[in-house]
User: Fold this.
Amino acid sequence: MENQNKTAPVQENKMGVMPVGKLIVNMSVPMMASMLVMALYNVVDSMFVARISENALTALSMAFPVQNLMVAMSAGLGVGLNAVLSRALGAKDEQGVRRAAGNGIFMLLVCAIVFMIGGIFLVRPYFEMQTADPEIVESGIQYTSIVMIGSLGLFMQILFERLLQSTGRTVLTMYSQGLGSIINIVLDPIMIFGLFGMPKMGVAGAALATVIGQWIAAGLGLWMNVKKNPEIPMSMKGFRPHMPTVKRILGIGVPSVIMQSIGSVMTFAMNQILIAFSSTAVAVFGVYFKLQSFIFMPIFGMNNGTVPIIAYNFGARKPERMRRTIKLSITAAMVIMAAGTLIFQVFPDKLLMIFDASDEMLRIGVPALRIISLSFPVAGFCIGCGSVFQALGYSIYSMITSLVRQLFVLIPCAFVIGKVTGNVTMVWWAFIIAEVFSLCLTVMFYRRVNKNVISTL
Assistant:
């Protein structure tokens, strides 16, 4: 069977014939595992930085919106590329496959160059507008400058992973993501604390470890695409931008970019609300994001596995396989999220102590984790529906939902609650209010897509 696929790639891809339950496991579990490893290295990064000082940890929390923006750009355009590629593969459109791959590579290269320039000129004013604490400012500048200037590795890593995902080779993406994350975890203590003869670099060492891991993962991803992914041509010889293909990728990718970038704006705004209480509150918010990634990353990994399945079967006009995929993936997402809620309710103090939490951080952080985690199961449903919108070219719905939840509801509610109560613990309830609005919009949009698209096939 394997040899047949290599010699006759035009035959039906497994996304069109494998039993749906088995296919979701086959496509998603490797992605979920690699996402968990990524979440682990995010936590390890902050865990070691927390041993430098609480101010260093606060600096990483303030740097998070910039890092999230880079991931949003690369992953969002990757979603657009993934959906366009999978649809072309399902329709047996070889020219469409070549055009999508070439234009996707070009677009992500341009984005990487923009962030590299920003890392040189924009980092200092970004931190100085948030705080006057010199330790936080200098630590933040060191960390953020390095990850931005070295961001080409991140963009190429995500690009090559998306190319592998579009043809169903998610096990290979697990190898590249896992290798990059493991290298980061190993290098973190060595470069931060100066072990084995290395100079002690502090937060700069944490940033450099991250960049090295991303570049190595990108190199492995390139090799696997050249050697193991024959359905996607990697040659850029004679490449010219093809505007209809660019527009299709952007049509799906830009709403996804905006949707994920909203998280950067939200985090920046929340940091400004929380720092009015204390820098510890900002550190707690940053720690929360690191911890919740253990719950959310597997869901995002499952989405990365299900988007090409839905898109492929849409291109192949197989609505029953689409419906089965949607039902199983959303159910699994809600179960995982419910387990995450239970963990955050029972062990919030243990989770915070991973970061050498002070008494003040425990006082603020324990109720924060318990309150925010109540929204996890609802978020699981909304994220699962978001994968449907992305796969079918309706990413605009996910964008609208994220805008309403994170900017139009969460931030105003958090600001008003903070001002009225003067109690940082009450601010966390804004997350619950925002998730209720998100649920209402998601249900409305899903019903529309099901009626107008899926049911008409």
